[in-house]
Amino acid sequence: MDRITQQFGRVSELITSADTRATYAKTLTLTWGILRETGILLWLVLCLLFVGADLFWKISVGLGLRTRAWYEDTTKGSKNNEPKSFGEIGKSVASSLGSGAETLLYQAKQQLGMDPSAPALKPASPSTTTPPPAGTAAPAKATDTASTVEATAVSTDKANTNS
Predict the structure, then answer these.
(1) Which residues contact 105 (CB under 8 A, 6 or more apart)?
(2) pTM for the predicted model, two decimal places
């Protein structure tokens, strides 16, 4: 029994010691600080995920809308509803990707603090036809030629019936 009393005395001295109280107070303070900073870190990561998801959503929707507009433009751009040739579609895609890459490079340089030169703006739909020189007539379209032939035939028929 003396041994138990002696051991109890030693344990109570250690527990009630000023060093023990200071050590436990420091431990609890440090543990609380760690938990609080970890919670803040988790919150910031969650916010980053929300912002990233929102950015991904906006980019995806914008890309989808631009792709749809591009596709509709390529299909209704021809007169007789025939799709554009693969060459024309390829040129259009290459132009889009080129301007996107230039913009991406500009943004990256700007983020890194480098002196970025603004990307050159290209026309949205480059025209492949050039206007005829001054003083010359533009070549007739197939529909213009057909209507001209019809008008000539009608006027010839009227002239024959009147004579």
Answers:
(1) 116, 119
(2) 0.38
